[in-house]
Amino acid sequence: MFLHCWLALLALMPLSFGTKAGVKVKLTEKGLEYGRQLGMASIQQKLKTITVPDISGTEKVPPAGKVHYSLTNMKIMDVGLPQSEVDLVPGTGFRLAIGNAFLSMNGNWKVKYLRIMKDHGSFDLNVKGLTITTSIAIKSDETGRPAVSTVSCAATVGSASIKFHGGASWLYNLFKNFIDKGLQNALQKQICPLVADAVSDMNPRLKTLNVLAKVDEFAEIDYSMVSSPTVSTSSLDLGLKGEFYNIGMHQEPPFSPSNFSLPPQISDMLYIGVSTFTANSAAFVYNKAGVLSLYITDDMIPRSSPIRLDTRTFGAFIPQIAKRFPGLKMKLLVKTVKNPVISFEPNNATVQATDTVTAYAIQPNATLTPLFVLNLDISVSARVFVSGMKIAGAITLNKMDLTLGTSYVGEFQVRSLDNIFQMVLKLVVIPQLNTHLAKGYPLPTLGKMKLVNTQLQVLKDYMLIGTDVQFMG
Length: 473
Description:
The chain is α+β, with helices and mostly antiparallel strands. The chain contains 9 helices and 23 strands. Helix content is 23%, strand content 46%.
């Protein structure tokens, strides 16, 4: 795994400029340090692929005269990267510096001298003081996905020392300084192209980012970037659209994101701010899809409840129902008539919903006879938490208010039905909504990414997730 693991956190999704962010992401220096640790192992493996072409030539070596030599089958045996650091470069991306690196290799040698004398053996080469500095830029490719490229690279080899073994190795040792220099130059020329290749290797992986996160059969989330990343010396900040859409039909809601800023916290690797815009766009989408409407029948009420959905129970409060429709089961249709409004205040997330409840008597032939329509205003509190790579939640009823919309059975006291409908909300409606909320809504994800030591705070107009990150495999 190369630096793509955390580079993707810098540029999670494609660009859609001109829109305010519904979700904001901050990658801190702690996150960069974790990326450096992951990246060094991959760079080390890349440098082990260095190939040095066979070298041959002729040198005058007293007293043997002209010596024809060749160095072949040169292979890297070990690479060490004991020192490295990564820094953010404001306005560009980041800089990776590797110092005091070393490598060792071996190969075979052959010589021919005095026209008829031939010999061969092996050699070891040790390179020390290797330094690499590269600057990497982050941009959007033609598909809107993030892409990285090498802006500059410099590599120097401090020293290269070769030692020959076997046969007439004394001949090589006489002109080893010449060979040391040649091998040093050959290695130095290969390092930056290999680093550039390693950077380019990240792009196919970045293309696998989930640019449109599917939630369920009704909704998906657009996490596209709405502006270029803002790079400072301490963090990289970016804005994502963070908007829910109906699958296959992207309709904008009748409201827009408001500006918000993440606090200057840096103790975690990654911070994700999810605004009320994102939450309210979800409510808009699910309401439009009809998911927030629910038919309730008596078999959905727990058997232990003394209150049943039938004309006998309701007839105790509205006598004309029992008289006109004796002994019938009832059905309720709870329907959201306005988009629910979700608000975030410090340590408090609430949802305000406006619904209607239509009560029907179920006739013996299964036809429905309307009895009344009530207006239902509900306030619930939401507990929001992170589960795996998703945001999940659960709601509890704060209060409800019933008013009469239409009656088909004459006048009655609506307040007398408060206990019945509180029971219906608590035992049927809210549990069904919580089942859906518990499934969660995906966060931006890359590969086998795992959030650890995660905390979620509800703040003014947004939720803040602070977390460390691990990449598994």
